[in-house]
User: Fold this.
Amino acid sequence: MRKQAEIDKDALAKNYEKQPLNKIFPLVRPYKWLFISAVVALILFNMVGLTLPWMLKIAIDRVLPNADYVLFWVLCGSMVIIYLVRCLLRYISSYLVAYTGIRLIVDLRQKVFRHLQSLSLRFYEEYRTGKLISNVISDVALLNMLMHVMTQFGEQLFQLFLIIMLLMFINWKMALIVLVSLPIHCLNFHYFRKVIRKDSMVIQEKMSEISANLSETLTGVKVVKSFAREHAECLSFFQNMRPIVDMQMRVTVDNVGLWTICDMLSLFTYLATIGSGIMFVQNGTVTIGEFVAFYSYVGMMLGPISQLSGMSVTFAQGMVGASRIVKLLNTIPEIKECDNPLHPSTLSGNIEFKHVSFYYTKEKPPVINDFSLTVTPGQKVALVGPSGSGKSTLSNLLLRFYDVNSGVIKVDNMDIRRLSLDAYRSNIGVVLQEPFLFSGTVRDNISYAKPEATVEEIEEAARMANVEEFISQLPDGYDTIIGENGASLSGGQKQRLAIARAILKNPSILILDEATSALDTVSEYLVQEALDRLMEGKTTIIIAHRLSTVRNADTIVVLETGKIVQQGTHDELMAQPGIYRDLYQTQRKMAVQA
Assistant:
């Protein structure tokens, strides 16, 4: 049962403080004119509304005492016009705010996804998939919430400024008495914003961890069921959710405290308005109409103050999402293209490893140590050796999933670090021990390597990979949905689909990483037959534990701790004592006993 690590709120807050607002603004800069237009429309909407209390003042001071019906109908007509203008401005501002938010979400998710595609394999080995999904979906939505808050903040702040000016214009002495509560409102907002933001950070971190655990559990559902761990996983999920419930309740309580203080200050403001109004009306410095307008403006002023206070939770959560997005986008891709990279259209497949050394971390010994090897075009080279000897690491270096720490890898006499990644990798085909298939149709999975492929090309690739043998038995043939990672197919069928994909790509260089080691005898025969067709005329690197599959390789390279300890054909290596002969004889004995 997995347990989540405890999260230090102060340490987390300090970490996110390193992502200042000036790094968040570039994310929304492309939409600045849309935001400005939305804020201007909202400000105009509120400015038009501010004329209504002033008309009420005119009605009380001039229309009522004098029974001036002409002025009355002028006021009525003006109010209808103002109402219609407000309706139009409300529509424009709401449309602009919604459109900008939708554009921001879509474009930013594309930007984050594009950035994720540029990151190295090491990043994905250290960062859980569920947390990345949380970044792309939840954190971008929180950033959009922040932008909505910022739009409202600009609108409410400007409205507050206008109302204060109007209050000062009506009677500056009354205004000063009423505005005493403003600094206390600011302190209240600032305090609860900091408290709520810390809890929001922890909630978001824990939710991303839960998302990661959920992704693992659903992906490994066969293992969960086979070990009868359903109840344990449910209990683990509940135990991980429980602290979030407590923290969300704490945020709710903090928010209630914020609003309670805000309401008490609003009550004090109303009482101060009425008390001072009585005094100023009695001494004749303020008319009844002015007092009514003043009181109305005070009510309109408390609205923005309350909304600004209520933004604490949304602002805090939005800042957390924005900070996490900034932190992710600031992750520098480990593998970068050089300036002015080369774009070879085709490669002949000549590969040279020259004194290559590589380590995953400096604290550990090198996985590959001073490795040198030349593979000529069309040659089939097998890499064998005990587990951990560096076979798969060499294929990762050749694919440039990692860069060498020293030495150089050349293809067609060009340093692969000088090549465009797209152009280079488009010339390499890979067939893995556990091929990954997408949840679409058989046709979609074959054509993934070449989306523009014709029906004839797809069917020819399927025939060469022995895929047609089982496609005819599927309910919809090539258009059959195969489920997530080919859930409805056997291991051998999935492997042959992966080979068909590689055949359609028609690469110059081919990497086979344990392509037949997990198959039964019949499936292995069909897959090996397909692989033989695939390897024809291509430079091939074969990684294998099962040595019987590499007997026909042109050269067999035996590795141990990242170094070449033996090299030659199968017959040459069997004729000399060493690791290869020992491994081969051991595997033969095990096969006979089985």
